[in-house]
Request: fold
Amino acid sequence: MKKLKIVFMGTPEFSVPVLEGLIENYEVILVVTQPDKYVGRHKELKFSSIKEVAIKNNIPVFQPTKIKTDYQEIIDLKPDLVVTCAYGQIIPKVILDCPKYGCINVHASLLPKLRGGAPIHKALIDNYARTGITIMYMVEKMDAGDIISQSETVITLEDNLKSLHDRLSIMGKELLLETIPNIINGNINPIKQNENEVTYAYNITREEEHLDFNASSIDIYNRIRGLSPTPGAYAYIDDKIIKIYKAELSDSFFTTKENGEISKIYKDGFGISTKDREIIIKEFQFEGKRRMTVKEYLNGKTGEELLGKILK
Reply:
């Protein structure tokens, strides 16, 4: 099975365990990833996480700006299988039709739920009880191909974007390695997706990162953990941005304070009034300052200067 020639297409950190699993078990002949980007104030050129793995393992890297028109390098290699995982571009039909065993995708949801680029964020924000990994055949429509295999996990109240991301990343690797031999041996029964059950998880917008304290505490809590550690949920305090990375639900219901008002200072948190109760902020970052826990902030302070301030 090691002789199976695979082209892998992926970009972010989520894809790394998947690629590493393929390298350990098969012949990865090419890695396709997004073009390098200039990041930070100093505009430093940054490779994708997947490119770093490819270089480390001496695998050729292909970085087309538009895979829709720049794909010949893949076709010329005549791969047996193309595997994608969070690549970031729609794959054209000419590539889909190229490999002997087809093109398969590792997607971080239980399709047909949460098609799109932010399924982990949205599973948390939208309060899904469970999610998982789907291996599917690729088609020209986004995340709409026949399902080959799935694996699921329960989303706990303690999960945030990082914990769920890391768990699903490993699950994706494990499920892929279980599934490929079945594809090669023809021991699969692909299932068409039920279009009546489709939901979408489009990439997060700046507006979706903003916290609305007129919402319920559970909705606010889910948005905070669905955006932590990056990009981070935010609100405004004294017309300046405050990013909030960690919170917990309070037992205090129906406070008499204005929604968004810092109503109580705990030894390790700020109590903020919401539509139905209080939510306690545990980790945050004032604009222009470093990220810190509330306990760190309150070291030597009473926090009284924050009482009554409104987060909007």
